Amino acid sequence: MAGRTPQKTAPKSGPPIGLVYLAAWLVPGLGHLWLGRREKGVVFFVALCAMFAIGLALDGRLFPFVWSEPLVALAAVADVAAGLPYLLAWLAGAGVGTPAAVSYEYGNTFLITAGLLNALVVIDAHDVARGRK
Amino acid sequence: MVESHFFLMVLFSTLVGVVGGMLLKDTRKDQVRAAGVIVAWLVGAAVVAGWVLRVFPL
User: Which string of DSSP letters, residue by residue, matches B25-51?
Assistant: First the structure.
């Protein structure tokens, strides 16, 4: 149709979208690296892993899934969204949290935000994989 | 560990700004500009909120 702006189309062959999701969630930035966005992938990896590590160093807590306390459960979902850093910290027994520490709330904020930003990165990887960006 | 509230706020804002800028824009110049705007808004809003809460404490 005349005057219609050309749309970016999805690449004909590429990695399976489900695997891109999984990779992007597990390792922050890996989805972008896989899709050829090397610079973005490296920046996401460094920034989000640093954010998660700083959150742990600031005595932040990895929240448990307590469904009777919705805000705690939501924080747990946000923590899990960080992917492999969360799993490694959980397996290592880190992220117990020290509520008496001055930086406890900062630590929680860093941890939760790292997970939420990784969720946005996964969505961005989806757009890249679909050829929308 | 660092206990400076302002330093931690700036560090947090910088990391969020870097990721946000990379997510929102595709060229280096636009990414830097977007990151700067995000950092400025986060830090500026926190400082303003801090002064407002000093005058009108909860």
Answer: -SSHHHHHHHHHHHHHHHHHHHHHHHH
